[in-house]
């Protein structure tokens, strides 16, 4: 047998020759660093399957005890079971390969009863994905708390609101942070929904239709921490949407982070200067002494763009007839694990960036000098106080802006007579009367922000309501994440107890 091949791949059985070195080097390298991520799941499945086989009477307790004792011994190796399996080779069948060498095929050959490479891979991938999701949700909660703190701290800070990167309306930094919070809230919901949707065990499905063995899939699911078992054996092993949805959800999450990072990146430039990234998250230039390059933000937005490409790759890998997709699945999940790594790194980094971020209120206020961002409120005041149709008011103010710019007048120099002249130009009517101070009343950024009476607006009172709502959702989501974690830990304890019960000799033996 080629020592790099899975334990069942032997010359003289179905295939005449040994594994070619060209294939071995590419698909079955030893150690296979590409598969290390799922080997903990493979190891756990091996143990749970042996327990289930023994409890179901398919495997003698004495043999089960030998197999389990050997697997526990493997965990004591330097680097643990995962590193040991990498060194052994055989991929998902590294356990059987190790046990065969240690105990012989007469005992070790029984571990695979009722299993296939298909459900071993599906179970290991599912366990790994659930673990990665729990870690990602925990880090996302951390980021949401960092954004929440910023929203409360910056609730009153006036900033320019932009549309098409043009001055739009006065707003507050707190309002901006809350908009980011609610996007991240939905990102968490997608991850949690994904976790619940695929919280079922593929164990026992084998490669397609199950097997003749009277397995107990419910017991295996219980020992592995799944809340349910598969309802269709083909779907359990061949479904692609678990991977596709995970890649898509991560891509959307990182796109959310990327948009926030892009905004901060822009606002940190010399032209804006609204925010400042801590020096520890920047690098200097090798030639330009004045430079402070916010590379942390560049990384966060960059991995989001890479994740978008990976999500497409993962989906494309499953585009062939479903019964033919085997190695493509391995390639696809490799991309998925890389995206999880990028997501966890970006979330950790972004939390630290926000915790040390400085907001320069004076620079934010400077944007309002001679800005036309108040003109929409001028039109609204003409509607509310003088009964004009909205379109008439809006078009008249648009004429006002053009006339002022044509005459090289500033926004701060606008008077009531300028408004009346624009109204006359647009409507041909001379019946509008404006009280002194009318323009000044609608021109103040703080007054504009506080005038927003629809819920969810930028005024401090509304921002603090949004902060309170977001905080409650964070705590609710934290409880859900803890429930996921507790269920996984409980399953580990249950598996350990079941193993110990089999290792204890029967009375009378």
UniProtKB/TrEMBL annotation:
Q: Which GO terms describe its cellular component?
A: cytosol
**Pathway in which this enzyme or protein is active:** Amino-acid biosynthesis; L-arginine biosynthesis; L-arginine from L-ornithine and carbamoyl phosphate: step 3/3
EC number per UniProt: 4.3.2.1
One GO BP on record is:
L-arginine biosynthetic process via ornithine
Q: Does the keyword Ligase apply?
A: no
EC class: lyase
Report domain Fumarate lyase N-terminal positions.
Answer: 53-309
Task: Extract the InterPro entries matched here.
Answer: Argininosuccinate_lyase, Fumarase/histidase_N, Fumarate_lyase_fam, Fumarate_lyase_N, L-Aspartase-like
Provide this UniProt record's keywords sorted from A to Z. Amino-acid biosynthesis, Arginine biosynthesis
Give the domain of life: Bacteria
Q: What name goes with this protein?
A: argininosuccinate lyase
Protein species of origin:
Ramlibacter henchirensis
């Amino acid at each position: 047998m080629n020592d790099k091949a899975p334990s069942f791949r032997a010359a003289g059985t179905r295939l005449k020759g040994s594994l070619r070195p060209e294939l071995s080097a590419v698909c079955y390298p030893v150690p296979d660093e590409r598969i290390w991520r799922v080997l903990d799941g493979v190891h756990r499945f091996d143990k749970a399957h042996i327990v289930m086989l023994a409890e179901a009477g398919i495997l003698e307790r004495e043999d089960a005890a030998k197999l389990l004792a050997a697997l526990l011994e493997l965990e004591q190796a330097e680097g643990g079971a995962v590193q040991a399996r990498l060194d052994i080779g055989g991929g998902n069948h590294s356990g059987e390969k190790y046990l065969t060498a240690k105990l012989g095929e007469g005992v070790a050959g029984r571990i695979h009863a009722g299993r296939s490479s298909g459900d071993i891979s599906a179970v290991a991938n599912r366990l790994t994905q659930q673990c990665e999701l729990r870690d990602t949700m925990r880090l996302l909660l951390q980021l949401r708390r960092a954004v929440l703190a910023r929203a409360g701290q910056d609730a009153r800070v006036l900033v320019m609101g932009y549309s098409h990167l043009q001055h739009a309306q006065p707003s507050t930094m707190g309002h901006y942070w809350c908009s980011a919070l609610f996007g991240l809230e939905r990102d968490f919901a997608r991850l949690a929904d994904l976790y619940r949707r695929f919280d079922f065990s593929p164990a026992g499905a084998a490669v397609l239709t199950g097997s003749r063995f009277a397995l107990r899939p419910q017991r295996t699911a219980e020992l592995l921490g799944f809340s349910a078992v598969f309802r269709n054996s083909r779907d359990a092993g061949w479904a692609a949407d678990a991977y596709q949805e995970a890649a898509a959800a991560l891509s959307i999450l990182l796109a959310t982070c990327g948009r926030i990072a892009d905004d901060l990146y822009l606002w940190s430039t010399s032209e804006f200067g609204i925010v400042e990234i801590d020096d520890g998250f920047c690098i200097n230039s090798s030639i330009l002494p004045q430079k402070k390059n916010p590379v942390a933000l560049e990384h966060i937005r960059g991995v989001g763009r890479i994740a978008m490409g990976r999500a497409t790759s993962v989906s494309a890998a499953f585009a062939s007839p479903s019964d033919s997709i085997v190695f493509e699945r391995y390639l696809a999940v490799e991309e998925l694990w890389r995206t999880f790594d990028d997501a966890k790194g970006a979330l950790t980094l972004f939390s630290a960036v926000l915790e040390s971020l400085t907001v320069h209120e004076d620079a934010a206020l400077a944007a309002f000098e001679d800005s036309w961002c108040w003109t929409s409120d001028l039109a609204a005041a003409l509607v509310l106080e003088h009964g004009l149709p909205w379109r008439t008011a809006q078009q008249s103010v648009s004429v006002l802006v053009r006339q002022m710019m044509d005459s090289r007048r500033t926004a701060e120099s606008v008077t009531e007579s300028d408004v009346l002249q624009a109204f006359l130009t647009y409507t041909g009517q001379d019946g509008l009367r404006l009280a002194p101070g009318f323009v000044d009343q609608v021109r103040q950024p703080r007054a504009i922000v506080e005038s927003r009476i629809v819920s969810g607006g930028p005024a401090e009172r509304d921002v603090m309501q949004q902060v309170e709502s977001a905080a409650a959702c964070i705590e609710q989501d934290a409880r859900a994440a803890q429930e996921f974690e507790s269920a996984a830990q409980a399953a580990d304890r249950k598996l350990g107890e079941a193993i110990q019960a089999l290792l204890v000799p029967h009375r009378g033996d």
